[in-house]
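#lab-general

N.A. 3:47 PM
ok so I finally got the sequence cleaned up, no stray characters, all 407 residues accounted for. can someone with queue access submit it? mine expired

B.Y. 3:52 PM
send it over

N.A. 3:53 PM
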Amino acid sequence: MKGMRGVFSFILVFFIFTISILGMLLSTPLAYGAEKEKDLPPRGIALAPEYTGVVLPAGDDLSVDIEVYNRGRADEDIDVSLTTVPKGWKASIKTYSFEVTGVHLQSDSSKSLTLKAEPDKDVGPGKYVFEIKAQTADGALTSTRRVTVTTKEKGEIVKSEDLVLTTSYPVLKGPTDTKFEFSVEVENKTDKDSIFNLSSQGPENWEVNFKPAYEDKFFSSLRIKAGQSQTMAVAVTPFALAEPGEYPIKVKVSSEKAKAEVDLVIILTGTFKLESATSNGLLSLNAIRGEDANLSFFVRNNGSATQTNIRFLSFKPENWKVEFNPENIDTLAPGDLKQIELTVTPSDQALVGDYSVAVRIEGEKANENLELRTTVRASTAWGWLGIGIIVLVVAGLVALFMRMGRR
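B.Y. 4:20 PM
back already:
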């Protein structure tokens, strides 16, 4: 009996000890989170450029990443602006492809932006200061930082064998609405770790960004260890209205002592789009079996490339005829429109009712479909024949009644 009590007591103590340990483990994250929240001030913001001092060849564009922080317990709307821009420079704060004037940040979070600046052609070597300001929407908190840019004559920073850019496919070809991506390897052959600034020169209104391979975030500089290399992707989005043709893009990578360039080329074939519809927007047709029914529709080239050898195919009920005039379009320039006459002839044996006639328009690199509802009605001759029979029957009955009445 005593032995059983001892075992029971041991189990009870072990159970209480286990519950206590689990309680401590479960409460630790909550306590840590509460302690972390307790450590945050009620409000706080900060602005941190990745580099506060940059050396560039004269005439090169500037691109510096900026981090905006909300260090407080409350969510904040933070205005971001450039309070000082050197004379002869055009500058803005951007993210991806658009300019930014403010961000919303939750408590204890941050947002990455980019300072982009472009010098005029007459801006020479010298020291230029950009001042960036972050301010809460109510104006209670501000943070100001400076980025100093030192530009040197191009002869002071020269191409070096210690910095090598390599790309396996320097020429890419595709439609205007394609997003192109080049792979470029940057090799640092020096004996020192270096930070390399990235810039590009491309056609007007085109977007050129640098990013890690297979990732969506963008960057403006690379840190590469001595004797190592790093592969980056050059993402290019053509201007939506760019005409077909060949467009060069120059990618520049530079540090304080060396720079290298690589020439990339994009060949735009244009976009291929066809549109078809009727003038009134209706896709229905009335027909009589065995007789021709006509319908007009148009074909428009909505792409930026000329379409050639456009032909028409039809999918119709058995024993029906479908004809097109003209039977094909040899050439259709961008924005041009061509009217097509369609003739549908139902079978002599077609029953009264609705049928589907599909038209396929096949261009060089684009297709379009039209589906027409064709309603087959009885011939009016049969209607007049029926009326004639009814008249004869009525006349016969009248004559019969008149003859019977005389008797």
